[in-house]
Design a protein that fits this description.
Elements (H helix, E strand, L loop, with lengths): L9 E4 L3 H13 L5 E4 L2 H10 L5 E4 L8 H10 L8 E5 L4 H9 L4 E4 L4 H11 L8 H4 L10 E7 L6 H11 L8 E7 L3 H10 L4 E5 H9 L4 E6 L5 E6 L8 H5 L2 E5 L5 H12 L4 E2 L8 E5 L5 H7 L3 E7 L2 H7 L3 E6 H4 E2 L4 E6 H6 L1 H20 L1 H12 L9 H9 L13 H14 L8 H4 L3 H7 L10 E2 L3 H14 L2 H19 L2 H10 L5 H4 L9 H5 L5 H7 L1 E8 L2 E6 L3 E6 L13 E7 L2 E7 H4 L12 E8 L6 E8 L1 E8 L4 E2 L13 E7 L2 E6 L1 H5 L4
Parallel strand pairs: 1-2, 1-3, 3-4, 4-5, 6-7, 6-8, 11-13, 11-14, 12-13, 20-29, 23-25
Antiparallel strand pairs: 8-17, 9-17, 10-14, 10-15, 16-18, 19-20, 19-26, 21-24, 22-23, 24-25, 27-28, 28-29
C-alpha cells in the first residue's frame, strides 16, 4: 500500500467476537497484521494507556461499558493521544449519527457492512492518501461513441436488483431498444459505495434501499425516487442453538438480532416483530433494551448465528436465510410479506440534475425497466440465467440458475411486475422508523418521489397492481407466530426427528415407531420450501465431471434414503412432506397398475403409487416395515404442486451428501431410466442412487 506503512499497529475495538475475527481477517488480507483487540471502550482505554505506539484506532459504536463515541471523545480530550486517526466502523448508518461522530472529531466513518476495499480506502484516507472514491467513474465521458447519453446506474450483488440486469441483457441482445441512452451498470461492493457515489454525484442513479435513500435526501443529497426495483423478498430465521417454545419472547430476550443495514426494511419489520411479542429492541445498548440489533454482512450471517450463542436470529434478503435453514444452522421464523404484504424495499433513485437535463431519457429508462420487471415474471428460466451472469459473473458468491429460479418462483418471495412506488407505503415506512424506532429524519415524501415516470411507465391495471397490507398489531403478529409454530416448523424438525428415529425404523419399522415420528415431523410450507436450495459444487468437480452445473448445485445436501429390493435410493428432503405407515387405500378404477389408489390423510385425498411396480420390479406383500413417503412435486401447472404417496420397502437413514460424494449417472446396472437419476452417492462402502423424484414418478396430476 503506497503511502501507508503495512507495519501499522492497529487497535481494533469491537464487542462482537465473530465480527472482530472477520475484521482481523480483512485487515490481514489488505496487509495489516499487527492488530491489538479490545471488546469495549474501557478495555481500549487501558490498552492506550499502556501501549504508546498505537497508530490508528478502528472502533465500533455500540458496545457495553463504554461505547465508540465515548471512546472517541476520551481520545480527543487526551493531549498525548488526540492526534491518533480514529475510524468509526459502525452499524449506525444514518446521517444523524455520522454528524455526531464528525462533531466529536472522528477521522473516518465506515458503515457496516463494509467490504475489504472500503476498509482499505478508509485507512488510506485517514492518513491523507486518498480523498475521493471511484475517480475512474468520473473520468468517463457523458456521451458514448454512438452519440447517445451514457447512463450510469449502480447496484450491488443481490437478487433485489435483477430488474437492472435483465434490462441490460435485453438491451445488449437487441430485444429492447433505447433511443436516448446506453446503459452502463456499475456493480459496487456494498451500500456504502452506492450511497457515497450518489452523494458525490458521480453516478446518475442507483438501486438502493429506500430508507437509505430517504436518509440521503434528508441531508440535502439532490436525488429523486422514480421507481421501485422490486417488492417483498426477505426472510427472518432463528438460531438452532437453543430450544424455541412459548412464550416466544423468552427465546429472543437478552440476545442480539442481525440485520443487513440500519436504514432498511429488514430493520423495520424485525422491530415490529420483536416489539409486538413483548420486547424492547434497539441498536443502542443499555438496561432498558432487551434485544440488540447488530448489523452484519449478509453472507456472514449464518456463520454469526452458528458461532455466537448470543445471536437469536437474523433477517435478510433471500436466498441466504433459506440456505441457513437447509444447512441446519437456522429455523424459519417468518417471511417479510407475512408482516407487510407487497412491501417496498429497494428503489430506483436518480440524480435530480439528470432528471431535469435528460427528461426524455428518464421516461425511456423507466419504461424499459418496467418491461424488464414483467419479463422476469413471465420468463423465469431466462431471468434466472441472466441473474447468474449479472450478479455473479466471476462465480464468487455461489449463485446458480436453480437457486435463482427457486427464489424467483417463491409465491411469497420477490416480485418485479409491479414497480409502482406508492407514496403512502413509503410514508408508512418512514413514519414508523422515525417515530417508533427513532432513526432517520422525516422528509416530505411527495417532494422526494417523482411519480411522472412511474405514471407514464407502469400502465397499472387491476391485474397488475398489488395493494400492500401491514399486519403490525400484536394480535396479527401473534397469529403469524402461532401459525408458523404449529404448522410450519420447516426442514429442521423434519431432519432432527428422522435422524432420531431412523435407526429403529430400519431395524423394525412398525406402527410403534411410525406414530411418534409422524407426530413430530412438521409438514414443509409450500411457499417457503420452494426457496430451499444448495450451495454450488466446487469448480474442480464441475470441470472434471460431465454433470451439468445446474444439476450439480442442486444435488448436495440432505437425503432420505430407502430400500427397494436390494438397492438403496435417496430423495432430497426438500420433496419429502411426511412418512406414514401403511393404511387403508381406496382403489381407483382405470388407473395404471402402479397406482394403488388414494388415501385420506387428515382430510386430504392423496394418490398413492407403488414405486417398485413403477420401476418394473416384482411386487411384494406389504409388511410392518413398508412405508408411504408423502412427496411433493410440480403438477405441470405453473406455481402448483401436488402431494403423492410413494410406497417403499423400508426407510434407511438421512444422509448429508457432499458434492465430492457424487458421481455421474450410470449407463447400466440399475433398474430404472437413468434420466430419473441425479447421480450416485458413494459414501463408505455403499452406493445410493439419488433420484429426481419428479422424473421418477412422471405422472400427470
Amino acid at each position: 500500500m503506497s503511502g501507508v506503512a503495512e507495519n501499522l499497529k492497529i487497535l481494533l475495538v469491537e464487542d462482537d467476537r465473530t465480527m472482530r475475527q472477520i475484521e482481523i481477517h480483512v485487515l490481514k488480507k489488505i496487509g495489516y497484521t499487527d492488530v491489538i483487540q479490545a471488546a469495549n471502550g474501557d478495555e481500549a482505554i487501558q490498552i492506550l494507556q499502556q501501549e504508546q505506539d498505537i497508530n490508528i484506532i478502528i472502533s465500533d459504536w455500540n458496545m457495553p461499558k463504554k461505547g465508540g463515541l465515548e471512546l472517541l471523545k476520551w481520545v480527543r480530550a487526551d493531549k498525548k493521544l488526540n492526534s491518533i486517526p480514529f475510524i468509526m466502523a459502525t452499524g449506525q448508518a444514518d446521517k444523524k449519527h455520522e454528524k455526531q461522530a464528525v462533531d466529536a472529531g472522528v477521522t473516518g466513518f465506515l458503515v457496516k457492512p463494509f467490504a475489504d476495499d472500503e476498509l482499505k480506502l478508509a485507512i488510506r484516507k485517514a492518513f491523507g492518501i486518498d480523498t475521493e472514491e471511484f475517480k475512474w467513474v468520473e473520468s468517463l465521458s457523458r456521451m458514448t461513441p454512438s452519440g447517445k447519453l451514457r447512463l450510469k446506474i449502480a447496484h450491488i450483488q443481490i437478487t433485489d436488483h435483477l430488474v437492472l440486469g435483465v434490462l441490460k441483457h435485453l438491451l445488449d441482445k437487441g430485444e429492447l431498444k433505447a433511443n436516448h441512452f446506453e446503459l452502463e451498470t456499475i456493480c459496487m461492493s456494498g451500500w456504502n459505495p452506492v450511497a457515497k457515489s450518489l452523494e458525490n454525484g458521480i453516478i446518475d442513479g442507483a438501486c438502493i434501499l429506500a430508507p437509505l435513500a430517504m436518509d440521503l435526501y434528508s441531508v440535502g443529497t439532490p436525488i429523486k425516487l422514480v421507481l421501485l426495483s422490486h417488492k417483498n423478498g426477505s426472510i427472518a430465521v432463528r438460531t438452532k442453538n437453543k430450544k424455541y417454545d412459548k412464550p416466544f419472547k423468552d427465546f429472543f430476550e437478552h440476545g442480539s438480532f442481525l440485520i443487513p443495514h440500519k436504514m432498511s426494511i429488514h430493520h423495520m419489520l424485525s422491530h415490529i416483530f420483536l416489539k409486538q411479542i413483548g420486547l424492547n429492541p434497539s441498536m443502542q445498548k443499555g438496561s432498558v433494551y432487551d434485544v440488540e440489533f447488530e448489523v452484519a454482512p449478509p453472507i456472514n450471517m449464518p456463520e454469526f448465528l452458528k458461532t455466537n450463542t448470543n445471536h437469536s436470529g437474523f433477517m435478510v434478503a433471500e436466498p441466504i436465510g433459506s440456505l441457513a435453514v437447509e444447512s441446519n444452522i437456522a429455523s424459519y421464523q417468518f417471511l417479510s410479506g407475512e408482516i407487510w404484504e407487497n412491501h417496498p424495499c429497494c428503489a430506483v433513485v436518480m440524480q435530480k440534475e439528470f432528471i431535469d437535463n435528460y427528461t426524455d431519457a428518464m421516461f425511456e429508462f423507466t419504461r424499459l425497466l418496467v418491461k424488464a420487471g414483467k419479463f422476469i415474471a413471465t420468463h423465469l428460466d431466462d431471468a434466472a440465467k441472466i441473474a447468474v451472469e449479472f450478479l455473479d459473473p466471476d462465480r464468487t458468491i455461489g449463485l446458480t440458475v436453480p437457486i435463482l429460479k427457486k427464489v424467483l418462483t417463491d409465491p411469497n418471495g420477490i416480485t418485479t411486475d409491479d414497480l409502482y412506488p406508492v407514496v403512502a407505503d413509503l410514508d408508512t415506512m418512514q413514519q414508523y422508523m422515525v417515530k417508533e424506532m427513532g432513526i432517520g429524519n422525516a422528509i416530505n415524501i411527495d417532494e422526494f418521489v417523482d411519480l411522472r415516470f412511474a405514471d407514464n411507465s407502469c400502465d397499472m391495471g387491476l391485474a397488475d397492481f398489488r395493494p400492500s397490507f401491514l399486519h403490525s398489531s400484536k394480535e396479527e403478529i401473534l397469529t403469524i407466530l402461532n401459525k408458523n409454530f404449529q404448522d410450519n416448523d420447516k426442514t429442521d424438525d423434519f431432519v432432527d426427528n428422522v435422524v432420531e428415529h431412523v435407526d429403529s425404523m430400519s431395524n423394525n419399522l412398525n406402527q410403534e415407531h411410525i406414530e411418534p415420528m409422524t407426530n413430530n415431523i412438521k409438514q414443509l410450507d409450500n411457499g417457503y420450501g420452494s426457496s430451499l436450495d444448495r450451495n454450488p459444487v466446487e469448480q474442480n468437480l464441475i470441470q472434471n465431471s460431465n454433470i451439468k452445473e445446474e444439476l450439480n448445485s442442486a444435488q448436495e445436501g440432505k437425503y432420505l434414503t430407502f430400500f427397494l429390493d436390494r438397492e438403496e435410493y435417496g430423495i432430497t428432503i426438500r420433496n419429502i412432506r411426511e412418512i406414514i405407515g401403511m393404511m387403508a387405500i381406496t382403489h381407483v378404477p382405470r388407473t395404471p397398475s402402479y397406482v394403488k389408489g388414494v388415501i385420506n390423510l387428515r382430510g386430504k385425498v392423496i394418490p398413492v403409487m407403488d414405486i417398485r411396480i413403477k420401476f418394473g420390479m416384482e411386487s411384494i406383500e406389504y409388511n410392518d416395515r413398508t412405508c408411504i413417503l408423502v412427496v411433493e412435486v410440480p403438477s405441470g401447472r405453473e406455481n402448483h404442486n401436488v402431494q403423492i404417496g410413494v410406497i417403499v420397502d423400508s426407510v434407511s437413514e438421512v444422509l448429508n451428501v457432499r458434492s465430492d460424494d457424487i458421481e455421474a449417472n450410470p449407463k447400466f446396472g440399475v433398474s430404472l431410466d437413468t434420466d430419473a437419476i441425479l447421480g450416485m452417492a458413494k459414501i463408505g462402502e455403499r452406493v445410493r442412487i439419488l433420484l429426481d423424484i419428479e422424473k421418477a414418478l412422471s405422472v400427470e396430476m
